[in-house]
Amino acid sequence: MPHSTLAGARDFVFEGSVYQISGDYIANARPSTGPSNGQPLQGIVQGRRALDPEDLSIEQETYNGLGYRMHLGQIRQSGRVVSVKVYSGSHAKRHPNIPHLIAVSGLKSKAPFLVFDGEYEDTTDRLLSWVLKKETKEILTFGLQTVIGLSSGLDYLQELNYPFASVGLDHFVVLSSKGKIVISFDPEELEPTSEPNRDLGLPNHSLTDTAHDFFHKLCQRTFNDACKAHYKSRHSQRTYHDEFDDDFDESRFEEFDDNSSSSTAPASSSATTRKPSPRSPSGRRQELVWRSPAADAVTLKDISRQFQSFLNFQHSSSKPILSRRRGRYTARMSHRCPGYSRIEVTLTTDILRSAIVSHSSPTPGEICPVCTEVVKEEILNCLCGNYDDETMPIVRCWACFEWHHRPCVGCFDTETFARLWPQEVHQIPSAPDIGAVDPAQLAEMMGRFEFPSAQYLQYQLQGFGSGRPQTSPGDTRQLDQMGMAQNQQPQNGPVSVEKLQASHMRQQQQRQQFQNGVMNHSSPAGIFASPGIIQQPPNQQDP
Fold it and tell me: Where is the region Disordered (predicted)?
């Protein structure tokens, strides 16, 4: 009804047929009480033109009031844009984010079917996967429309007392109809499912699930499915959550460009002395991310309202108006590929906490678009205890296989780290006996791997040797970190076998002194005298 003013009216019906989805969610045709011989329909307001519901297209909910909902609609015949005020009652009225049932199959039909109004192009996640290749503003717009449609549609079903607790997530399919989000759902009579949902790694449903719970799950599933081609498996996706860097200066945030990467992370530990590698557009990808807050008191009605208001402002802006942040991983990853960047349009229930987040390194399980390899889980557990900001050069300890910031293991003096770690540590295990190795084999090994020093070769042999006894992870990490803190500088150029063997003898003497010092709880200077574990040199970067 265009601009209805019947405030407080209840349970009226349009002339013609009205189909219920309330109660048992079975379509019930209510016969028309008006003339059927082509005479004008009788309206509920005398003197006003009556309109058949089939002649009216409801496009979008604009307001949810007490006992009614305002929609943006269009008269099909004339194309005139109108506002529609639909009153709530015991019978469900039409909603733009719920399929509109217009016909059903015969009672004795061998293939029962339902006929819905409108055209559905595809599922929302499949359309979104194509949108992710476009500009960031289009991605943000589509994401906002998805959140608005899901929150509004589920809020509508909630008012109809839809039994969310008795159905699973697989009962819902999010479709797209000319850019409009439509939630297709199964009747409540279907048996509830309890199998895990592979998309989210969560149970398909819970007996306490509400419309609010399904809203978060559907947002997360829709956005994740749109990005599933970026990951080896959907289960590994979003395993490692990232955090916003709220202290990041937005004026330093590089503007996004469709023809270039937006991040500037070094490709290796020697990036501080080299010019940055040229950026490749093929290494840039964009994603939509939904963040479900731990404690969320925002209602579906409020979510729909604030996102709709934000979308209206978004249409009038030439660029995305979300704040921009540099991302950081709580998992502290170490994979580095020149040219990689990922832009995440990250949405949450509080639109002010939503942001466009830039990452310069991938997550575990992600297929890197630069090297096409699946990113492995590698931990950055630096002595400083800080996060990986994705810009600082890093080095890897070959004993514990953990990564550290290069400045942290190359700039501090021994006494600084001596105060950080306790005096009681286990003895550093001995390395394989280099003196027993054939000199020709040593020379060949040094030439092949370009070992910069005798100490580094001994360290490599120690890391991959079988003579190292098992110690607790905490003890091993302490020993490795203390050794890395020595900041020993590697030698440049080839090293002769004679120098290698002479160096080995000195190392054995120093190791014995170190072990004696540990047993006697010696001074910090004695602890850090051991050359057993040293940092990776600048020109040696683990891939």
Answer: 253-289, 484-543
